[in-house]
Each structure stands twice: as C-alpha cells, then as structure tokens.
Amino acid sequence: MSARQSLVAGNWKLNGSRASATALAKEVADGAAALSCDVLVCPGFAHLADVQATLADSTVALGAQNCSVEPSGAFTGEVAAPMIAEFGAQYIIVGHSERRALFGESSALVAQKAKAVQQADMQPIVCVGETLEQREAGQLQAVLDEQLDAVIDQLGIAGLAHSVIAYEPVWAIGTGKSATSAQAQEVHAMIRAKLAALDSEVAAGLRILYGGSVKPDNAKELFSQPDIDGGLIGGAALDAKSFLAICAAAS
Ligand code: PGA
To answer: What is the CATH number of domain 7-250?
Structure first.
C-alpha cells in the first residue's frame, strides 16, 4: 500500500466553450465530492475564470495545460505562470507530447517551464514518454533519461518533491490503444528507480501518473499497479461520467 495520494487530472486540451467548460466543471465538482482521490481539471486559458468560479467550494483542483518560461515582459501571446496562479490554479501541465511534437518544445524548455511553475508556487505535471518508433528501436530508457535529466538539472532532485510526473507513451495518446498495465508499470518503475538512485525519499513520495487512452474500463487495472499513482486523461475527461468513473477507479 503506497502512501502516495492518487491524482486524476483531466486535460481538456483545445476544447469547449465558456458554457460547456462551466457545465463540465459543475458535473465533475458534484461527482467528485464523494471521491477520495485528488481530482484536477485543466481547461484552456480562456476558460480558467469560469471554471475557477464553478469549482469554488468544491474538492476539485484547477490547473492549466502550458505556460511561458517568462514571468512577464515583451513576449506577445504568452501566458505567464503567475497569471495562471491568480486563478487559484495549483498545477500546470508542461511538456505534453503535443507541445513537444507540434510546437517544437525541447526538454530544456520544458524543464524551464517546470521551474517557472514552481517559482509561481504551483506544481508542474511534467509529461514524458516515447514514440512507437523510439520504443521499437530500443530507445525507451534513453528517451526517458533525456527528458527527465533536463528536469533534474533544472529543479534539482529535491525540486521533484514538488512536482508530478506523467508517463504518456505517445503511441497511446488519443489512439484508443492504451499501454497494458504491465507495460505502464514497467516504465513507471524505471522512472522511480532512476530517481531513487538520486534520492530514495523523493522517489518514494513522487506521484507518477499514466496517460494515454485511459478509459473507465481500463482505469482500475492501470491504477492498481504499484507505481501508477493516477492518470492524466484526455478524451475521456471531456465526458463527466467517464471522467468520474476513472476517478472512482483511483479512489
Ligand atoms: P487521451 O490523452 O486520454 O485522449 O489519450 C491523454 C493526454 O493527452 O494527456
């Protein structure tokens, strides 16, 4: 039995309107009251204020999906971590594979974003994971090392105590093809072992989420693995019933 409190995070990506985001947040807030895991929703920036208002007095935490490395200045179009913190956000996802692949974010940039999140007194949810090509080429460990080492360099191993890692194999995201619980557990254990070599206490306390086609029917099996501490949910988080069923599997 691990002492780590499970966390289930909904990544709403680039979806919804003010009205639909508010309605979804309301349904999640109502359903989450009975759950014992930590529940988080990450709407788009434009919906933060509405969702914050909707989640007031609920047990559901608020987060964002990205932020600038800069706290302020002449960076047109960016959104700074301190701006996000003003909405009562507690977490920001950084380094999602869509950011890495579609927006060219390097591991060094992702690590700087993780630092910016912590400097604004929130926790980064740092996403890592390999493509199918990398997995088939036997590069899994090398890919994880490159992604994690950048974060360790930037935050220090002690800084990992104030963060969350999400393992999201790129080939499982939005494809309906989840990693098996054994595949996911193997990688989560690899990540924890790597960090334990630097600081066993930090590694033991760190929440490592699995993401990639988590659905109500595979969540329980995934979350029952010893090193899987919850999930980062994309598609299924847009439906309150599905998302709450996944949260219940972690509770
Ligand atoms: P998915 O997305 O659940 O739709 O596969 C997960 C994610 O991108 O975080």
So the answer is: 3.20.20.70
